[in-house]
Design a protein that fits this description.
By secondary structure, the chain is mostly helical. Helix content is 65%, strand content 4%. The chain has 17 helices and 4 strands. Strands 1-2 form a two-stranded antiparallel sheet. Strand 3 and strand 4 form a beta hairpin. Helix 1 packs antiparallel against helix 2, helix 1 runs parallel beside helix 5 and helix 9 crosses helix 16. The chain is globular and about 80 Å long.
Length: 397
């Protein structure tokens, strides 16, 4: 599961420039489309460096060394605090307390052995991969924006951006003692936090941020933060709901204050149009997925569950129609194992196939729900296996 979740985190990172391009296209903003296209072009070139960062963090985790980026909680600091308790327990502890500490320490060592912690290592390395990817894309887009500001011919923007992106490396990254380039730019770092679901909670949920230091809640907090961040990202991908998101309200406000945006999100004034395009593109991506499924369903190329009446079911069997499948030519390819897309596709197929039974109001209600589900699917896999992501460590609180 952890490998799957690392891949899904990477997919969210990869989607960002594509969604920004889509959002810019929806707005009819050619300049931002070109800048987003530069980010898309950077994805392939950034893969090698991102993979090196993955490898570096994977090996660091196996050797119990600190990872490049802070994860959902600081294991190294927790272990350090745990070890500091040993002299006190030995000196002042009762026989029962010493025995309890001994066996708990055995569990701590076991849970932090390299191969027991492989899932946590994989997630930490995957997060580092994604953050590096986002940083490299940001480098390229800044190079493209500078080229546009310098009045470079629009047909040459991509080439100039490729040739000059290294000029912006130290704006986005800082080199650590291992020679690895670590994201330091505030906006790129915030984008990494959002994508890996590790951003600090704010607003009415900010009090949970201190829960990790409270005995009894430390083991619970990482799951809360990951789930809340996943739902937050899902909201940004959902029509109607996205417009009630605080970031949408700030960025789409016609009277927005660039200084406020810079302070709150770390987004430079010149990069605000690209951030707006990303918000628009996220909403459009959820609509597109359901739209394509509707077209396939209405053309008979997407099937849902078997019909309720026996006569139609027998007709399906006679004609060789398979439930929960794509129709390609005269063949049917099942999507039943494609979780969680199967739920969305099945709902859309049922609505389009049986809309004459459901009625207009119920049909429209189901399609609205399908749009929400399609949007949420982009991030839902990222928090279905939190226990695997965090490891089954001992609460040292």
């Amino acid at each position: 599961m952890c490998i799957r979740d690392s891949v899904n985190t990477g997919v969210i990172g990869y989607l960002r420039p594509y969604q920004a391009w889509l959002g810019a296209a929806v707005q009819g903003n050619k300049e931002e489309m070109i800048i987003a296209a530069a980010g898309i072009d950077a994805l392939g070139k950034s893969f090698s460096e991102s993979l090196q960062m993955f490898k570096h963090n994977w090996e660091a985790g196996l050797n119990r060394k600190k990872l490049t980026y802070q994860g959902k909680f600081d294991v190294q600091e927790d272990i350090k605090e745990w070890r500091q308790l040993a002299p006190q327990i030995e000196r002042y502890g009762s026989p029962n307390e010493k025995l309890a500490y001994y066996w708990t320490d055995v569990l701590v060592n076991f849970n932090n052995s390299p191969w027991v912690r492989y899932s946590q290592n994989a997630m930490g390395a995957g997060d580092a991969f994604t953050r590096t990817l986002i940083g490299r894309v940001e480098m390229r887009m800044r190079a493209a924006r500078k080229a546009i500001a310098d009045n470079v011919d629009l047909d040459d923007i991509q080439k100039v951006a490729r040739d000059t992106e290294q000029n912006f490396r130290e704006q986005i990254f800082k080199q650590d003692r291992h020679g690895m380039w670590v994201v330091s730019d505030e906006a790129a770092r915030a984008a990494g936090d959002e994508t890996t679901l590790t951003q600090a909670l704010s607003g009415q949920l900010a009090w949970l941020q201190g829960a990790r230091n409270t005995t009894g809640l430390r083991f619970f907090f990482p799951f809360v933060r990951t789930g809340v961040n996943a739902l937050d990202l899902a909201q940004q991908h959902t029509p109607m709901l996205a417009r009630h998101h605080g970031k949408w309200k700030d960025l789409m406000n016609p009277n927005l204050d660039p200084a406020y945006i810079l302070k709150k999100y770390g987004i430079q004034p010149e990069d605000i149009p690209q951030a707006q395009a990303l918000m628009k593109g996220r909403v459009a991506s959820g609509q597109i997925m359901v739209g394509l499924a509707v077209i396939m369903g209405m053309s008979g190329n997407l099937t849902g569950s078997l019909p309720a009446d026996k006569e139609t079911r027998d007709l399906w069997r006679m004609r060789g129609i398979k439930p929960f499948s794509f129709k390609v030519g005269n063949s049917y390819i099942s999507y039943q194992k494609m979780e969680p897309f199967n739920t969305i596709l099945g709902m859309v197929a049922n609505v389009t196939n049986y809309q004459h039974v459901l009625g207009e109001d119920l049909r429209d209600d189901f399609l609205n729900k399908a749009v929400f589900m399609a949007s949420a699917v982009i991030v839902c896999l990222l928090y279905t296996s939190d226990a695997a992501d965090e490891g089954l460590g001992v609460d040292l609180g």
